[in-house]
Amino acid sequence: MHFVHKTYQPGETIAALATPAGEGAIAVIRISGVNAFDVAEKIFSGPVKSYKTHTAHYGKILSKTGETIDAVLLLVMKGPRSYTGEDTVEISCHGGSLVVRRVLERIFEAGANPAQPGEFSLQAYLNGKLDLAQAEAVQQLIASKSEIALENAEKQLSGDLSKKIGGFQKKLTEVAAILEAWVDFPEEGLEFAAFDELIAILRGTNAKMENLAETFHEGKMLHEGLSLCLLGTPNVGKSSLMNALLGKERAIVTEIAGTTRDVLEEDLRLSGLHFRLVDTAGVRETTELVEQEGIRRTKQAMTEADLILLLLDASRPLEKEDRDLLDTVPKERTIVVWNKIDLNRPKENIDGVLISARERTGLDQLRAAIDRFIWRSGPPSKDEVVITKLRHKQALQQAILSLQLVIEGLERRISAEFVASDMRNALNELGTIIGTNVTEDILTSIFSQFCLGK
Fold first, then answer.
1. How far is CA 178 from CA 209, 237, 420, in A?
2. H helices of 268-389, where?
3. According to the model, what pLDDT value does residue 254 have?
4. What does the pLDDT read at residue 315?
5. DSSP code per residue over 245-302
6. Which of 18, 173, 326, 355 is 20 to 30 A off residue 49, Cα-Cα?
7. φ and ψ at 433, to 5 degrees?
8. Against a cut of 0.85, is the pTM above it?
9. Do residues 10 and 22 lie in contact, with contact meaning Cβ atoms separated by under 8 Å?
10. Whole-angstrom Cα distance, residue 234 to residue 375?
């Protein structure tokens, strides 16, 4: 079921658990809104409304009848100096699920409404504490599965992407002002030199926008990670390689062909990225029903994988099933790996990486080959801004298309109204990235993906 935000009311006070649900030493409950301090004072043993901002106070959460629910630490933050930009109270209570439920029930009883997923960040966006790209970075920061993804999310949260988009907007707005004046005062016209100058400015901006859009390939890998599929015929050493890459005995390894009957998955860190490592059943002709299903799943995993390691047995000649796989795998996302070189060296004239999964040799060369595949132009530098959201890429592409129409219009000296309209479209698309031009549907789509309490 998809969550849909109700329209946010600035006067509303909301509350939710801000730490993960479950048992723990402490849990943090957040209350935010114009009545946050009133709500807190009704349930806390101290005079909350008299506390100075950004101070912490020990006390008790009390029931309506004055009974103690829990001993807590209460933090007061007066707006706009808070995450949401509104008056905020954070309560650190004991982390038992029953305690948390009772404290939340008391907060709702005192007048707060349950927060919806992402509603605190939505408050922060609507109150100007974050732009939309920064708000999205909050969720990416939480979901980061690798150091490089975390660093990129932190850069976006600090405003690097927003500054980049803002720079594009500034250049285009300057040109748009000239075009709008041309529409309002057509008799004035534009000098030919002015046309050439405007076209040069727009071409330069367009090139920078295209460069940013092209970073989505790297950005998507940073944010979502990659699936890495181990493929091959039975007994070529797929499970042994999985164990070697993971550094633990995750898959069962035997001399019996067809030991792996199902798809095994495990998280893996390689090249600074998060991978979903997939070990598959060996591909061969078989009449055994369970093994047939395993092979069907193998072929599905091969189709869906971002990168395939096709394992071949260096200790024996290639068989028909090996050659069939070599012919059918997508070459553009496959690395050929010759395993069992401790037993023999491959005699076939086929390029590939030489390893022994059992002896743990050649793994550095394999990791280097994976590195080269992933970072075709090298990993992004620490100063480089990359886009990680499909929404941003699509908005950039639409802005680029509109901007190219502007350039073509100026070159062909077409009517000013059409050129100015295309420029407005380009600016509108850029605005959707940082939130200066967004609809309720866009906000719903973005914030409904957030975790509860953020």
1. 21, 66, 9
2. 289-304, 320-328, 363-374
3. 45
4. 84
5. HHTS--S---SSTT---S-EEEEEEETTEEEEEEE-PPP-----HHHHHHHHHHHHHH
6. 18
7. -70, -45
8. no
9. no
10. 31
pLDDT at res. 286: 47
Buried b (16+ CB within 10 A) or exposed e, 220-255: bbbbbbbbbbbbbbbbbbbbbbbbbbbeeebbebee
If 0-12 CB within 10 Å is exposed, 13-18 middle and 19+ buried, where does residue 392 land? buried
Pick from 80, 167, 162: nearest CA to 128: 80
Task: Quote the pLDDT of residue 67.
Answer: 95
Neighbours of 427 (CB within 10 A): 20
Q: pLDDT tens digits, residue range 382-409?
A: 778 888 888 999 999 999 999 999 999 9
Confidence of residue 185 (pLDDT cuts 50, 70, 90): low
Residue 321, SS3 per DSSP: helix
For 418, residues 6+ apart whose C-beta sits below 8 A from its C-beta are 409
Range picked from 278-292, 348-362, 375-389 for highest mean pLDDT: 348-362
133: tokens are: 């790209």
